[in-house]
Amino acid sequence: MYNKIMVPVDLAHLDALEKALTVAADMARHYNAALCYVGVTTSQPSAVARTPEEYRKKLLAFAQGHAPDNGHEATASVYMSNDPVADLDDILLEAIKELDADLVVMGTHLPHHIDAIMPATGSKVASHSEVSVFLVRP
Amino acid sequence: MEKENSSDSEELSPAVGIPAPEGAANLIDTDYQIGQDNYSTSKFGIAVDIHGAVFSFSSMVILAFVILTLALPEQTGPLFESMRSWLTSNLSWFFLLAGNIFVLLCLFLIFSPLGRVRIGGGDAAPDFSYISWFAMLFAAGMGVGLMFYGVSEPLTHYATSLGGTTMGENGVRTDWAPLGAAADNPEGAVRLGMAATIFHWGLHPWAIYAIVALSLAIFSYNKGLPLTVRSIFYPLLGERVWGWPGHVIDILAVFATLFGLATSLGVGAKQAAAGLHYLFDLPTGDTTLVLLIAAITAVALFSIVAGVDKGVKRLSEINMVLAFLLLMFVVFVGPTLLIATGFFKNIGGYLMELPFLSNPFGREDANFSQGWTAFYWAWWISWSPFVGMFIARVSRGRSVREFLIAVLLVPSSVSVFWMTAFGTTAIDQLMNGFEGAKNADLPLQMFQMLGQLPLTEITSFIGIVLVIVFFVTSSDSGSLVIDTITAGGKIDAPKPQRVFWGVIEGAIAIALLLGGGLGALQAMAVSTGLPFTLVLLVGCYAIVQGLMSEPRPK
User: Fold this and answer.
1) pTM of the model as a whole
2) Contact criterion met (CB < 8 Å) for B393 and A113
3) Do B307 and A85 touch (CB under 8 A)?
4) What is the DSSP string of B318-352?
5) Nearest chain B residue to A40, by CA
6) Is B256 exposed, middle or buried (0-12, 13-18, 19+ CB in 10 A)?
7) How far apart (Å, rounded) are the C-alpha atoms in residues B554 and B548?
8) CA-to-CA separations, B459 to B141, B142, B154, B453, in angstroms, rounded
9) Rounded distance between C-alpha atoms, residue B346 and residue B333, angstroms
10) What is the 3-state secondary structure (H, E, C) of chain A?
11) Quick check: B520 and B513 in contact, CB under 8 A?
12) Which of B99, B162, B262, B438 is the most buried (most CB within 10 A)?
């Protein structure tokens, strides 16, 4: 049913993503789909990497370490942003199109009142994307 | 799965002392990891990720300051005033001297081999095209100031110069004319007035910004340190910058930025109120000011939440177009020929008077050099962490030489042209017998000048919109910068923090306007500018040190 599953990852908060990563791997196995990990970084040094190049290497290493055991290789795509917090939803929507993904599996937080003013990235992606989006609560 | 996961995340956890080698750059080898001292939680329904010491200390002090100023306006008002006059009269030489050092260092770097170093490593390609880079450089630096002082400064210096010098009883000059004035010599007064104005808006402010921006850019992009002011001190303090010495530096930067911004916001609110009064006869009292600041801050919050690309960048572009239209209108409807010839004449006059205007010692024109120049320098310096960080963020991939030439010359020339257009028009009107602008309050002078030109309603309205949008973009980008500093250099900290700082900036502007008016704002900008001047002087040393250790492409 699904051929390519996109999994946005935040290398700085991997512990919060554990459940989403497990779900993504299970789905990939079930549908025999390929996994593509997407990361967003800045050109400034961040908590994860001090240069964009270093970030790319880390995401690639992460993808290789998290390949599903179904024969498909896991790929990694890095997107650059001047303001990742504000642009994340747009970048992910663009990535879905560019990578030609047909399912998105992403971690998100529990709903809050503040979401009314500043909606969570997951909900925004789900409401604006044409493909299926699986939001994994912690 | 879980096991694999945990071993992986350990291997992938942020670089522990092993910086990735990148092109021809020289990363500093440090064990510090961005965000390691941060406190992050989402316990209260709002996610936060802040540097514990820097955030809590600066926000507590600022909140206490706002509350005290609002609670005791009678006591705080005179306090601010005496603080400002003490600082500018006793330490103006220090501000002027520091300003000269910044300009000289920039010029030295342009011509030295160090200018070949590339920001972001030898192979780095620029993030932005020349056009949008120039536009952002300019939009960042002055904004509201150009609107506020574009007419009033040339006009004031012209009028005081023409008035000549007057001696007080104790042999101290009581006039506000620059240098030796130009009594009863209209042509000399125009020349001196314009030279003095350009001096305040030309090379010196941009050299201050360039120093901050360059040092931040080098230590962040080439050395791999977090994008906060403390990183500049690495050559001097080593690993200690991650401890309390560094916290203090960052806290100073936050204070300087907040009060520098609040001054601009206060100035902007005053001018917007004056414009609304001029056009729609709205009252200009405190209530209007408070409502204006609150409303504009609310708009700024939308822009903050929208982010850099959808918020501040779009608004800056709109503003560039509006400002350009207003400038062209004044050029073509005003005395076009005078402005065109004046542009070059003014630059000439500026270069001739520069050595005297920038002399820090033994000045006879105490009122001018302390009340105007020293105040401006302090104001620019208190703005510099904010503008500098913004310029640093958009300048990756430029060589140091290219960077300095662009930052010094492009915005300076635009400022000179702006001042020439607005100033010449206003002075021309005055010479032809229109005294309205000269006699009006500072915030109203621009509208008085526009009132003498056709299409007054439209141009004044554009003027008000410009002031308001400049206000919004300053508040927006200011919140971003303060948020980055108080989040230990993280530029991807949660949004509610930015909103917090946006609200605080509005609150400071309101508190200071109510508790002492514009004088209080200026007093705080000067007081926070002073310690930050010391920070910048160290920055000069750090830049040279940092550039020396970088590879220099041929």
Assistant:
1) 0.84
2) no
3) yes
4) HHHHHHHHHHHHHHHHS-HHHHHHHHHHHHHHHHH
5) B492
6) buried
7) 15
8) 23, 20, 20, 9
9) 20
10) CCCEEEEECCHHHHHHHHHHHHHHHHHHHHHCCEEEEEEEECCCCCCCCCCHHHHHHHHHHHHHHCCCCCCCCCEEEEEECCCHHHHHHHHHHHHHHHHCCCEEEEECCCCCHHHHCCCCHHHHHHHHCCCEEEEECC
11) yes
12) B262
Which of B5, B42, B224 shows the shortest C-beta gap to A45? B224
- Which residues on chain B are in Cβ contact (under 8 Å) with A87? 307-310
Size of chain B in residues: 554
Partner residue facing B307 (CB), from A12, A86, A112 = A86
Residue of A nearest to B30 (CA): A50
Q: Are residues B492 and A85, on separate chains, in Cβ contact within 8 Å?
A: yes
In chain B, whose CA is at the least distance from the CA of A56? B20
Determine phi and psi for B38, rounding to 5 degrees. Answer: -80, 155
Chain A residues in contact with B496 (beta carbon < 8 A) = 114, 118
Which residue bears the tokens 């880079």? Answer: B133
Looking at beta carbons, which residues of chain A come within 8 Å of B11?
A: 61, 65
Angle B99-A44-B398 (CA atoms, 0-180°, nearest 5)? 60
DSSP SS3 for B173: strand
pLDDT tens string B282-307: 888 888 889 999 998 998 898 888 87
ipTM of the complex: 0.75
| Contact across the interface for A47 and B220, Cβ inside 8 Å | no
Sign of CA dihedral B273, B278, B283, B284: positive
Query: Which tokens sit at B188?
Result: 């000399």
Contacts of A3 (CB under 8 A, 6+ apart): A31, A33, A34, A102
Residues of B in contact with A11 (CB under 8 A): 12
Residue with tokens 């302390």: B370
Does residue B269 surpass a pLDDT of 60? yes
Confidence of residue B13 (pLDDT cuts 50, 70, 90): very low
- d(CA B367, CA B356) in angstroms, rounded, equals 15
Instruction: Indicate left, alpha or beta for A100 from its phi (over 0: left) and psi (-120 to 50: alpha).
Output: left
Q: Cβ–Cβ of B310/A114 closer than 8 Å? A: no
Burial of B184 (0-12, 13-18, 19+ CB in 10 A): exposed
What is d(CA B165, CA B174) in angstroms, rounded to the nearest whole number? 8
Contact present, B307 and A86 (Cβ < 8 Å): yes
Distance CA(B206)–CA(A132), nearest Å, equals 51
At B484-518, the pLDDT tens digits run 888 888 877 788 888 888 998 888 888 888 877 77
Contact between residue B497 and residue B483 where contact means Cβ atoms under 8 Å apart: yes
**Distance from B393 to chain A by nearest Cα, in Å?**
8
Running DSSP on this structure, what letter comes out for residue B219?
Answer: I
Return the structure tokens found at A25.
Answer: 């791997």
CB contact set of B380 (below 8 Å; sequence gap of 6+): B204, B205, B208, B209, B529
